[in-house]
Each structure stands twice: as structure tokens, then as C-alpha cells.
Amino acid sequence: MGSAKDIKIKLISSTSANLIVRRLHYSGKVAPNSKLHFGVFYNDRLEGALQFGSPIDKRKVLPIVKETKWNHMLELNRVALSDRLPKNSESRALSIVFKIIKKEYPFIEWILTFADCTQCGDGTIYRASGFKLIEVLKNKTIVQLKTGEIVAKHGTANYDFTGSKPLAGYQIKYIYFLNKDAVKRLTKPILDFSTLDKLGIGMYKGVLRG
């Protein structure tokens, strides 16, 4: 197998990105608020996608970094990568994408993302890519409907949530600063990564580390 240095990153259409996210992402679902789509290519094959967009409720998110203007942050909605990619491709892809965003959209100051410790993992690739851990919350938004389907519960979700139950686990919040000066305006403490192990909630590929 080749090296992570062999991967290439290109902007792709939402249609292409959504197809590969539905195939590769553990949830099988796309984020409808995604607006910026990057394809991860290896040996000229599309082997993954990273999708960015605005948070569903931006008014609640912007105060995380005070004085952030309306369009000066993004949420990393989906990371979906094939197992055919070389080792360390995740962090390599994120590094390249952040360089592109910083160059093409210099007004973007920071990136927010979440790790799902109910079904997937605790964000190992985010920590390896320079994200800061800022919050650990008991899950209330990822629920199982009476039909058995697992969905995210939020204001724009069009499901019948009667009788639904939140999955056991946690939602973990990470932030990455493209503008390093903006970290001074962060309104939440940066937590040590050991917090996850101390709480016994670490997860990798759907399996609790503890």
C-alpha cells in the first residue's frame, strides 16, 4: 500500500459527496446543511469525502468563540473515508483541506465538529489533526425511533419522535482554529484528552475502549 502523501484532495459536487457519504459513513446519512464538499482521491479513485456547512442552530454555536461574525466559522459535518486509503490518510486529508479553506476563504476563523460516542468513536482523528477538546455531553440528540431507525433529533428534523429513546453514550465537541488568534476569544475551557479515559467513555469503531 502507498503513503498518505499519495492522496489528492479536490472539490467535488454535493451529489458525488452524498453518494460516498451514504456508502461509507457509519450513520448512512448525509448532513443537509453541508455546502462545501471535498473529495479524497487515491489512485485516481474517489475514496472518501469531507463535508462542511453551517451549524443547524448557528445562534447557539457562535458564542463558543465570542465576537465571531455570522459567516466566519464552519461545521465539519461528515468525514467518510474508505478502508482502501493508506494509513494516516484521515489526518493528511484534514490538513490539506484546512490549508485550502484558509487560502480560499481567509475569513473562516474556526471549525467545529462532533464525535459520536454512542455508535462510532471519540474523535481520534480530530485529536491527531490538532483539534481541541472543549465539551463532553451526555447524548440527548441521537435517538432510536419506534421503527428502530436511528436519527438526530433537532429542530428541523422531520420524524415522529413519539416514544423515541436517546442512545446511551456521549457527544464530544471539538474545535480547530484556522485563525490562531481567535483561540483567545474561546469561551469554553480546553479539556485534556485524558478526560475521556477518566470518564470511561472512550470509543473506537463503535466499541468502548474500557
Q: Indicate the CATH architecture.
A: 3-Layer(aba) Sandwich
Strand content: 25-35%
The N- to C-terminal Cα distance equals 31 Å
Structural class: alpha+beta
Spatially, the strands of the biggest sheet line up as 1-2-3-4-5-10-6
DSSP helix fraction: 10-25%
Catalogue the unreliable spans: none
Number of strands: 12
Using the coordinates above, name the CATH class: Alpha Beta
Q: From N to C, what is the helix and strand string? A: EHEEHEHEHEEEEEHEE
Overall pLDDT confidence: 93
Shape field = globular
Write a structural description.
This protein has 210 residues and is α+β, with helices and mostly antiparallel strands. It has one domain (4-139, 171-208): Aminopeptidase. Helix content is 20%, strand content 31%. It has helices spanning 14-24, 58-61, 89-104, 124-128, 194-199, and strands at residues 8-11, 34-42, 45-53, 73-81, 110-117, 132-138, 142-144, 150-152, 165-166, 170-177, 203-204, 207-208. A 7-stranded mixed β-sheet has the order 1-2-3-4-5-10-6, sandwiched between helices. Strand 4, helix 3 (89-104) and strand 5 (110-117) form a beta-alpha-beta unit. The longest helix has 16 residues, at 89-104. The radius of gyration is 17 Å and the shape is globular. It starts with 7 loop residues before the first strand and ends with a strand. The model has no long low-confidence stretch (mean pLDDT 93).
